[in-house]
Amino acid sequence: MQWGFGILIAVIFWAITGFLASRLTGGDGAGLLGNILLGVIGGAVGSLVLNVLGISGIKDIWLVGSIIAGVIGAVIVVFLARALGMKDFAR
């Protein structure tokens, strides 16, 4: 039961992360599933970028740090997708 609750909490925060990234890039959100996927991908990209830059300590601020890393990565993903021709990505 505890494992399922952890997954539910993670999905909620991925959706929040994706929504925040979409709003920061001038969109209105990517829909529930789109926000969740954007949050998941953004979390991976954000963690990688923070590690490469040597500032991965941000992720250690439990929940807030994970959201910050996810939003950073998701914003990068949105800008990259739009630069590659997906003009309506996360709008």
In short:
75% of the residues lie in helices and 0% in strands. It is mainly α and 91 residues long.
Task: Walk me through this protein's architecture.
The structure is a single chain. With 91 residues, the chain is mostly helical. The chain has one domain. It is 75% helix and 0% strand. The model has no long low-confidence stretch (mean pLDDT 84).
Helix-strand blueprint:
Layout: H1 2-24, H2 31-53, H3 62-83
Helix pairs in contact: 1-2, 1-3, 2-3
Helix content, binned percent: over 70%
Rg, nearest Å: 13 Å
Give the percentage of residues in beta strands.
Answer: under 5%
* Shape type: globular
Key words describing this protein structure:
91 residues; mainly alpha; 3 helices; 0% strand; globular
